[in-house]
Amino acid sequence: QVQLVESGGGLVQAGGSLRLSCVVSGRTFSSYAMAWFRQAPGKGREFVAAISLGGGFTDYADSVKGRFTATRDNAKNTVYLQMNSLKFEDTGDYYCAARRTVMQRSTSAYDYWGQGTQVTVSS
Questions:
Q1: How many angstroms from the chain centroid is the CA of residue 70?
Q2: Sign of CA dihedral 57, 70, 66, 44
Q3: Cα dist. 109→66, 84, 105, 122 in Å?
Q4: Splitting the chain (123 residues) into consecutive groups of 10 residues, what average pLDDT does each group show?
Q5: 91 FRET partner, CA 20 to 30 A, in 7, 58, 63, 69?
Q6: How many angstroms separate the CA atoms of 20 and 118, rounded?
Q7: What is the DSSP code (8-state) at residue 17?
């Protein structure tokens, strides 16, 4: 069974930075494309970023492009989301997700999910 555990959320002022981490259990982490999603209060879950199996390809939502960077360390079974120039509208619960093979933007494409970590950006 694959388990994902996020960390790194918190309260930050607008313009600040946070780095989220997601540790994945299991010995086949390099077989999974990884993604980050977020859910603002009262809204649906939306795609933020995705990263390919080896980390060579990434994809970002337009709203975070140029501010957020997804990376992964396959030796540590960990995926990261570096968030810079944070805005109030980045507030929400952030989830990492995993799926076999290619990265996707759809929530329904992902098989495994973490419990989420809360990010609050004060304006």
A1: 7
A2: positive
A3: 25, 27, 8, 32
A4: 95 98 92 97 96 96 98 97 98 97 95 97 94
A5: 58
A6: 10
A7: -
